[in-house]
Amino acid sequence: MSERKILRGCVALAEGAIAAGCRFYFGYPITPQNDIPEYLSARLPQVEGVFIQAESEIASINMLLGAAAAGARAMTSSSGPGISLMQEGLSYMAGSELPGLVVNITRIGPGLGGIAASQGDYRQATRGGGHGDYHLIVLAPNSVQEMYDLTIKAFYLADKYRNPAMILSDAILGQMKEPLSLDPPPLVLPEKPWALTGARGRKAQLIKSLYLADGEMEQHNWHLHEKYRRLEREEVLVETDLEEKMEVLLVAFGSCSRMVHSAVELARSRGIRVGFLRPVTVYPFPRQALREVSREVGKVLVVEMNTGQMWDDVRLSLYPGCRAGLLARPGGGIPAPGQILAEIENLVKAGDGIDESVYQA
Amino acid sequence: MALTKVFTRPDSLRDLDFHFCPGCHHGTAHRLICEAIDYHGIKKKTIGIPGVGCGVFLYNYFDLDVCEAPHGRAPAVATGFKRVLPQNIIFTYQGDGDLGSIGMSEIIHTANRGENITVFFINNSVYGMTGGQMAPTTLPGQKTTTTPYGRDFRTEGYPIRMTEMLAPLEGVAFAARVSLHTPSQVKKARKAVLRALDIQLKNGGFSFVEFLCACPTNWGLSPRQCIEKIDKEMLQAFPLGTYKDRQGS
Predict the structure, then answer these.
(1) Which CATH number does the domain housing residue B211 bear?
(2) How many CB atoms lie within 10 A of CB A216?
(3) Number of Cβ pairs closer than 8 Å across A and B?
């Protein structure tokens, strides 16, 4: 029977990690994600886990690399600037095919930026972020329930694909409290015959990302590429709320999608036929779903708390002839449902003349 | 008449030719570590973590589980391993650029946490693999490809003495500097390596062995001249000895 609780997003995420069998956390303080390390520093010892406050995010990600190579489910969390420092380690983990979870409770960038919610790390998260030809598996929750559920999911995907996974969240989701059901799937820890545990009863093993012989690196990159193609075929998660004969399709992810969905309901109450599509995995991005839906609708409005990073992915996915405008709030401001509704109404009135415009709030 | 084998390759060291340059001491350090692993009977539970540099190819030579670490980050990677596998023996093998420059933060904090791991530090006063640039351990006046007029302490600072820096930290159980340039020094180095791993086996805390080594290729000297340089110059800048050996562990 599932347990009902009211939890803060960061705490729900931490409990999701525990439910997924994660017993190792390495992290460095940074706002607005400190609830995660503070909570886990108390919680992990209760389940015979290990919490280390590392000397830097660089150390955190490399402790995660070591724990992952030893076969454990392990995680770190941080925010913007700290995630930037982790990019070297993430590239090594992807190159060495090591699973692990990195949580980004994003803040506003670039630079020291600000601590309010932002979606400005979308591009860094979905493109790989560090050097070389790789992706992270990136899940973007939009509720406290999903902070819990998708954290569990991320650990399973990371292990299944031997690739680091990321929860791309933000300060709103991290701080807000909502009711949720704690209903974890049965804990199944996969066998990891590749893990380094000492060469007892088998030959010595090696985990590395260095390949110097002719052609080795090209072969390795094609191998990684095939993994990403498989992710795109098999692991896309998308939420849709569609109607017949839609005039406009709204696309948003993460906390922003909550405001967008409210605006969709407002628009419908005024008789406007509006659809809603939310990528839950932002990598792999739901290209196919978006292409199919956009076939039925000529106009798309992307709403993001950045200057249009996911907008690029949307435009790459649309059915030919369908155009996408952008409503962007890149500075910690939240697009209010009324503001989004006003843009929906403008788009409907604009006839066919939407020209991939950017609507500044 | 039957011949008895009195000297053989350690079991933990694979039967391969080293890629190291003639006169380089990496091979000697490799052998000493493998001898100690054999002596303690820990081959099947030891995991090696080389840093980035000439030592990264340790994974070709050591018949152990090995995990590569990003440049300078081996102590953090080792921390992750040790916390998951506290019963295993975990060591890093790092050069002077890796440990004393880019990885300074990781080595200091890993030592300060008293992580129960062993760090082997190869100090040859130069970046070997990248082609002979200045290292944090480069001697005053030493010419490298990035100090073509010799290291000037007024603009490039002084050689960093890692063993002296780490030894006072409470988390450090053992810290020694040894050299590999003469047979008698190799014998002392062998003891230090054995002791360092022994401390880890007894959960004694962080253990650290610094090896003074030659890099004939990047020093532009013959192996014999390298030995003279270690004897006359490196021993002055980097005095040998056991700087800490916590008793009772």
Answers:
(1) 3.40.50.970
(2) 11
(3) 130
On whether any CB of chain B is under 8 Å from the CB of A317, the answer is no
Structure tokens at A128: 């790989």
Q: Which residues of B touch A60 (CB under 8 A)?
A: 76
Confidence of residue B249 (pLDDT cuts 50, 70, 90): very low
**Cβ contact, residue pair A92, B70, below 8 Å:** yes
Angle at which helices A57-69 and B74-84 cross, to 10°: 50
CB-nearest to A199 from B64, B68, B105 is B64
Does the pLDDT of residue A203 top 60, yes or no?
yes
| 3-state class (DSSP) for residue A150 | helix
Give pLDDT tens digits for A244-258: 999 999 999 999 999
Residue B64: inside a domain: yes
Are residues B44 and A199, on separate chains, in Cβ contact within 8 Å? yes
What local confidence, expressed as pLDDT, does residue A353 receive? Answer: 58
The whole-angstrom distance between A91's CA and the closest CA on chain B is 10
Q: What would the DSSP string read from start to end of A92-132?
A: HHHHTT--EEEEEEE-B-STT-BSS---TTHHHHHH-SSSS
Strand B172-179 vs strand B241-245: parallel, antiparallel, or unpaired?
A: antiparallel
Of A26, A71, A208, the CB nearest to B59: A208
Domain holding B120, by residue range, is: 26-245
- Parallel/antiparallel/unpaired status of strands A274-279 and A238-241: antiparallel
Q: In a 10 Å sphere around its CB, with 0-12 CB exposed, 13-18 middle and 19+ buried, how is residue B65 labelled?
A: buried
Angstroms from B50 CA to nearest CA on chain A: 10
Do residues B77 and A65 make contact, with C-beta atoms less than 8 angstroms apart? yes
Please check whether residue B3 lies inside any domain of the structure: no
Tell whether pTM > 0.90. Answer: yes
Is B60 in CB contact (< 8 Å) with chain A?
no
- Partner B contacted by A63 (CB < 8 A): yes
Residue A62 burial (10 A CB sphere; 0-12, 13-18, 19+): buried
CA distances from A96 to A191, A206, A235, B78, B211 (A): 18, 10, 21, 16, 29
For B174, list phi and psi in degrees, rounded to 5. -150, 130
Cross-chain residue pair A198–B45, CB shorter than 8 Å: yes
B15 assigned to some structural domain? no
pLDDT for res A19 = 98
Residue ranges of domains in chain A, CATH in brackets: 3-234 (3.40.50.970), 239-360 (3.40.50.920)
Cβ contact B243:B111 at 8 Å: no
**Residue B49 reports pLDDT greater than 70:** yes
In a domain, B155, yes or no: yes
Whether residue A24 and residue B83 make contact (CB cut-off 8 A), yes or no, is yes
Q: What is the pLDDT of residues A211-247, one digit of tens each?
A: 999 999 999 999 999 999 999 999 999 999 999 999 9
Does the beta-carbon distance from A74 to B81 stay under 8 Å?
no
Number of other CB atoms surrounding residue A4 within 10 Å: 10
Residue type, A252: A
pLDDT tens, B115-160? 999 999 999 999 999 999 999 999 999 999 999 999 999 999 999 9
Instruction: State the total domains in chain B.
Output: 1
